Amino acid sequence: MVKKLIVFFIKWRLILFLIVFLAAKLIPASTLLRTFNAESRFIERFPYLLWVWGNYDGAFYLGIAERGYFTYEHAFFPLYPLCIHILSTLLSIPLLLSAQLISNLSLLIALFFLYKTLRVDNKESLFELMLFIIFIFPTSFYYAAVYNDSLFFLLATACIYFGRRNKWLTSSVLAALATLARLNGLALFFFLLLEYAYKGQTDLRTWDRQKLKAAYQSLFKKLFSGKLALMTFFFIPAAFIGYLVYTHIAFGSWSMVFTSMKVWNQDRVIFPPQVVWRYLKILFLFPSFHLNYFIAAFEFSNVLYYLFFLFYSFKKIRLSYWIFFALSILIPSLTGTFQGMPRYGLHLYPLFLSVTLFLRSRSKLFLAIYFLISGLFLLMALSLFSRGYFVA
After folding, report:
1. What is the DSSP string of 307-373?
2. Any domain includes 207
3. What confidence tens digit (pLDDT) does each residue in 44-64 have?
4. Residue 290, SS3 per DSSP
């Protein structure tokens, strides 16, 4: 398994480097990439094929790792830049190299925990197909970039594994750390509650209404009796509240975590159907060949992709997995935009499990078409990202 995983990883990285190399020959660099190249102090002495992975949000993470937060940067949660800073200091290496090591190693370890979780679920035979699905996912290249997606994927998947093994303290600490990496770590609180309520139950039994009612009656009794394992689950909201408290003490307002999202027009809570209606108007009433139009279409197509597999997996995977999957999609959709949505699937073991269950019984032709389409989207998205254009 380890050998297969490493071989898959090396081949994937080589393909990504090839795409980046060819894109540099064929696509002009954006103004943003030229500015990053000219002004960034983080990329000195590094070749293009390495420093380009630090553009866009990567520049913010590197800046925070070097000197802390500036105005409008608090939406970038602290764990990833803190890890970059610590590793850079310990090994005396540049911040860019530190970030690359964290992202790539986090992915490898995350995939190891993914395999162990499949074994707990008695589905380890799906591992090889799932690796194909993950590595050819249209935005999988963000795992290798200076983004926090690999780190969150590691923490969330390890939390799921230890939760399935009834290691409540370990899984709670991992979930709390995940919440310090991304806001949707809060969804792991509900995953753990359900797993605790359904210890030892099979996937389908977790959907039984009578079992659900009895499990939650027992859960609430234990909750109010001060059961220690349940108390550890509150590490998760406590981690988020702790970040708000830090922001309030250091910068004078806890709300800066939310108001900083104004730069990306994500500082308001908006009902998801309103967001869907807005995207439909863009796609059908204002069609154009402008890049922003195609990015909007890419974002919306990913939402449809997630929704399809959310409905497909209903009563096919564990209820705790399904709830984590649903909440992880719902939380970002409340911001009034699907911006960034193509990346959110990268964090979700339940999504990849659902896709694998769907594809395992399909014909070779169907699989070829799926991987071809996914691969073409990966080619397009990485080519644009590497030349400094917004993708997700």
Report:
1. HHHHHHTTTTS-HHHHHHHHHHHHHHHTTS--TTHHHHGGG-HHHHHHHHHHHTTS-HHHHHHHHHH
2. yes
3. 788 999 999 999 899 999 999
4. coil
Alpha carbons within 13 angstroms on the beta-carbon side of residue 382 total 30
Does residue 211 lie in a domain region? Answer: yes
CA distances from 339 to 283, 298, 376 (A): 15, 10, 20
Note whether residue 391 is domain-resident.
no
Looking at the structure of the chain, the number of domains it has is 1
How many of the other CB atoms lie within 10 Å of CB of 376?
A: 12
Q: Which residues contact 44 (CB under 8 A, 6 or more apart)?
A: none
Terminal Cα distance for the chain, rounded: 32
Q: Looking at the domain assignment, is residue 392 inside a domain? A: no
Residue 280: CB atoms within 10 Å: 11
The two three-digit tokens of residue 292, written as one number: 């922003």
Q: Residue 297, Cβ neighbours under 10 Å: how many?
A: 14
Quick check: 196 and 168 in contact, CB under 8 A?
yes
Low-confidence ranges of the chain (pLDDT < 70): 200, 204, 218-228, 262-269
pLDDT in tens, 87-113: 999 999 999 999 999 999 999 999 999
**C-alpha pair distances (Å), 297 with each of 128, 134, 292:** 30, 21, 9
Sign of CA dihedral 247, 252, 258, 263: negative
- Is residue 151 within 8 A of residue 183, CB to CB? The reply is no
Q: Please, which residues have CB within 8 angstroms of residue 151's CB and are 6 or more apart in sequence?
A: 79, 80, 83, 102, 103, 106, 181
Contact 189, 237 (CB under 8 A): yes
Contacts made by residues 125-133, CB under 8 angstroms, sequence distance 24+: 126/353, 126/356, 126/357, 126/360, 127/1, 128/4, 129/356, 129/359, 129/360, 130/352, 130/353, 130/355, 130/356, 131/4, 131/5, 131/8, 132/371, 133/352, 133/355, 133/356, 133/359, 133/374
CB count in 10 Å sphere of residue 248: 14
Give me the domain span that covers residue 264.
2-386
